[in-house]
């Protein structure tokens, strides 16, 4: 049995109050997993800890069997992190940026160039491949940041709100790229406020509230749990309300 892509055990983080509260979560290799939760539920905080950008107060993070807290470099080699605020060098073109990122990851140059061209084409950035990113819209920058995250062929892709702010065509391009990666065995974890995206794309959905996972499963399993409601929005609001009542 290959190890799961991600195992979080007893993960905890407090700022002025506890934000992540003894979270246990396992995501199998090859899954497309969506993390849902109301504003402030701790989604970004969890992803930042997994990506090694924030140190947990307690708990363990295992990425394909590697202890990410003990060996963050080895864990980071296997994953990509795409923030909801894309950071791209404005004075580089998309192809220069991808070349730079591939260099950081020591991707073999010919492979890196081929991957960069593929990504630029798939994400519809072809006509802008040689323009400076400084003049790009937020959606275009999001796509460049996503391409940068994928250029080293990560096995685990972690995305925070990857579709927010994208127009329908761009959202479709990003979804297609992610679907293709999942079809080739890559694991994707993403947060989203767009319930329809979670409903259509994710194999499993985790609902977070108050720093804990209050429900998890396929859409059909979640639906079964709350009764007869039909949309994910109904299910989500019901689960969060129950979570709040229990707390
Ligand atoms: N660096 C920080 N310092 C202090 N408080 C923080 C910090 N980062 C996050 N928080 C707080 O932690 C809580 C959870 O934030 P987080 O961004 O993880 O939530 P989220 O579920 O991603 O929310 P949203 O859906 O609004 O993006 C919030 O109350 C936020 O104010």
TrEMBL record:
Alphabetical list of PROSITE patterns matching this protein: ABC_TRANSPORTER_1, ABC_TRANSPORTER_2
SUPFAM superfamilies: P-loop containing nucleoside triphosphate hydrolases (SSF52540)
Pfam families per UniProt: ABC_tran (PF00005)
GO MF, one example: ATP binding
Domain ABC transporter: 1-235
Family assignment from sequence similarity: Belongs to the ABC transporter superfamily.
Name of the featured protein: ABC transporter ATP-binding protein
Organism of this sequence: Devosia honganensis
